[in-house]
Amino acid sequence: MAGRDPGVTDLVRAIFGRMEAAFRDALERARHDGEIAADRDPAVLARYLLNSMYGLRVLGKTAGRASMIDIVETTLTCL
User: Fold this and answer.
1) What percent of the chain has pLDDT over 70?
2) 45 close to 78: Cβ distance less than 8 angstroms
3) Helices then strands (H, E): number in the chain?
4) Contact status, residue 64 vs residue 75, Cβ threshold 8 Å
């Protein structure tokens, strides 16, 4: 319904925004602590992780475990 119902769209945007902010905050701490490269942008990585997470939720309906593990491992290498 998001995209068709303005109320639902606003709600989904707010939820995505909170999740992205949580990822960004964690990634900023990780960059500060040297766990990810200093030249990586936490905001960009946060959006990437949010997209990957929802992509995994969709693929998880049909993809096998090995495929899911490959995707997670590849996603983590981007950090």
Assistant:
1) 96
2) yes
3) 3, 0
4) no
Give pLDDT, residue 5: 85
- How far is C-alpha 37 from the geometric centre of its chain's CA atoms? 18
How confident is the model at residue 4, as a pLDDT? 79
Cβ atoms of 2 and 14 closer than 8 Å: no
* Contact assessment for residue 23 and residue 45, using Cβ atoms and an 8 Å cutoff: yes
Evaluate if residue 69 carries a pLDDT over 60.
yes
Q: Are 73 and 56 in contact (CB under 8 A)?
A: no
The pLDDT value given to residue 19:
96
User: For the chain, what percentages of helix, strand and coil (3-state, to nearest 5) are there?
Assistant: 75, 0, 25
